[in-house]
Amino acid sequence: MANTYLALPLYRAESALSYFRPTQEFPEHVTMDSPAMLVMTDLRQVTAVTVEASVSIDWALNRMKESGVRLLLVADSHDDVQGLITSTDIQGEKPMQLLKELGGQRSDLRVRDIMVPAEALEVMRLEDVLKARVGDVVVTLKRVGRRHALVEDIEPHTGRPAVRGIFSISQIGKQLGIAIETVEIATTFAEVSAALNE
């Protein structure tokens, strides 16, 4: 017996038509013992906010403000991660130190000048995050003195490592209902040297 299919009714579109965007609903309240995945921004559910290395740092800061984030992945035209830049990088000491060394004006500084390059990035692996609790992530971020952490997974279509998620200490604090502070720790020899010479 042949299936009978029915045409769906069509309607005139509303004049103020918008479109859905991917969103991730974070649980409002978690505890330190909750699974870590409950506080991770999952890039399978939320589009990563990216920036090109060649744009000015102030343009990047405006992109952060418009997107409501404090971290941008620096990506090239092939969507390969070149590094990352945070609002702390842009609004902190890095730009002033660079201008003191090289001269010029703030408007001359590009994202590539102050970003953390890909070869210096440290990531968590998804396999570890799946077994971790919120408290484990908080302790890790405090120990390394960072406000964010990237989570790496294997992209199933390419078989290559890719950023699957992002942890943000401010997002975790919001979900825990407490303020969590991390102390920025110099991570490269140049940063340690600069801090000692101040």
User: How do the strands of the widest beta sheet line up side by side?
Assistant: 1-8-7-6
Unreliable sequence segments: 186-198
- SSE string, helix = H, strand = E? EEHEEHHHEEHHEEHH
Structural class: alpha/beta
**CATH architecture heading:** Roll
CATH superfamily: CBS-domain
User: How many strand elements?
Assistant: 8
Distance between the termini: 84 Å
What can you see in these coordinates?
- The chain is an alpha/beta fold.
- It has one domain: CBS-domain.
- The protein is 30% helix and 18% strand.
- The chain has eight helices and eight strands.
- It has a four-stranded mixed β-sheet with strand order 1-8-7-6.
- The longest helix is centred in the N-terminal third of the chain and has 11 residues, at 57-67.
- The protein is globular, with a radius of gyration of 21 Å.
- The termini are far apart.
- The model is unreliable at 186-198 (pLDDT under 50).
